[in-house]
Amino acid sequence: MKRIFLLLLSASVASVSCSGGGTSSVGKPGTKGELIPREKTKSFVAERPYGMVAIPAGSFVAGLTDQDFTDSPEKAQAKTVTVSSFFMDEAETTNAEYRVFINYVRDSIARTLLAEAAGEGGEGKGRGTSIGDYAYLAQKEENLTPYQEYLEAQGGGDESTFDPTKKIDWKVPLHWNTSKYPDVEYAEVLESMYLPASSRVGNERILDVSKLKYTYRWGDMDIALAEKERGVNYLRSESIAIYPDTTVWVKDFHFAYNEPLFEQYFWHKAYKDYPVVGVTWDQARAYCNFRSKLKSDYNESLKRRKQRPLQFRLPTEVEWEYAARGGMQNATYPWGGPYLMDDRGCYLANFKPKRGDYMEDNKKGTYTYTAPVKKFKKNGYGLYDMAGNVSEWTESAYNNSSYGFSSTLNPSTKDKTDDKRSVRGGSWKDVGYMLMTGARDWERKDSARSYIGFRTVQDIPEAAVKPRKVNR
């Protein structure tokens, strides 16, 4: 009898676990005990970010295969390597694009200061008519969810971590015009972001750009490898002053009159489509993080949330060279040929044609310094200004022999102890040799120059199908 009872009991348990009301995560009901994932099998299509082009995966001969007139140690030995596919900005990051970053940080700081001053808020209508309208969202919500109550009970973290209870309200408009300040408390907060009257020239209200710091966290892979986990020690926090160094136009050229560019280049609307310069390697990386956050926040705001987007970053040195060649093997320049002019005698990039001659009778345009992006022909991948205009930061640490010891599969150098970073492409002040796809150069990552800018990339998953264009 006992044996019969046990058999009946085991049969009843099996029937419960296989019934439709069970909680098994193995698969859908009726899978007969087979392990069948619940996830849909729809193929993943990589969404092409706005302003970027897809660079297909491939192999190529990296390094300088043409004659080296300088015999410099920066020469890269020829080496066949393979590069995975990725998206890349079709043009260098412009002043207008970087100002979006500046304005976001400025507004974030202003809203945080206002929220702290607002405390528990007031009786405002949420239209920016009093400082109380700028209180943190958690202070405005009457019916908190259990999760929100839990977060409040836990208290806030340090400045380097995100505190969900201190989420700012972006829907309330900010007033930067002094005539529209809603109250005295608001004016006190906003004016604290400007230089004091004693430091102003001509009584002009100037934003204190030293306060524009972007704080973000990133993962240190070396720590993850050492500790064999991605715990709290894996994360690193940085607070970067992000405003470009506009004095580079004077510092880089001591015996030249470049004061108008110092005064106008970054903020004047005439230069909105010109490549941003005066940014360090760290500032360029902070911009990449901001762009990733911008897309991630948008995906989070959707009713039907999208998968978290892959991070934007700087290209590795080899990725940059691969993209610059435009799909052509042994291309001397991004346009393929060994000449700097086309068949009509027009220069194909913005560079310094001759000693003391930056314009060569205007055959390359009317650009004494930088040129607006996309003014010269794009290469085979659809990328503009991969030669000349401004040199570009890459993610890779610089080493004379890195092309020799790095991997043949997605080669990259990650020496954090060396502050040298690879810079590629040549600039408006360089001679034609520096525009060659295999020519190498470097700069210290904390340096800002009037001839160095950057562009960003985003990885494409190996399993993704052909990227599709985003409808705008």
Automatic annotation (TrEMBL):
- Name a Pfam family for this protein: FGE-sulfatase
Where would one find the signal peptide in this protein? 1-19
Keywords tagged on the record? Lipoprotein, Signal
Keyword check for Protease, yes or no. no
Q: Where is the composition biased (Basic and acidic residues)?
A: 413-422
For this protein's source organism, the top of the classification is: Bacteria, Pseudomonadati, Bacteroidota, Flavobacteriia, Flavobacteriales
Which NCBIfam families does this entry report, sorted A to Z? GldK
Q: Which residues cross the membrane?
A: none
Q: Write out the GO MF terms.
A: formylglycine-generating oxidase activity
The protein's name in its UniProt record: Gliding motility-associated lipoprotein GldK
Organism from which the protein derives? Chryseobacterium taichungense
Show the segment(s) annotated as Disordered. Answer: 404-423
**Which InterPro entries does the entry mention?**
CTDL_fold, Glid_motil-assoc_lipo_GldK, Sulfatase_Mod_Factor_Kinase, SUMF_dom, SUMF_sf
Could you tell me which residue ranges the Sulfatase-modifying factor enzyme-like domain spans?
51-457
Q: Which domain of life is it from?
A: Bacteria
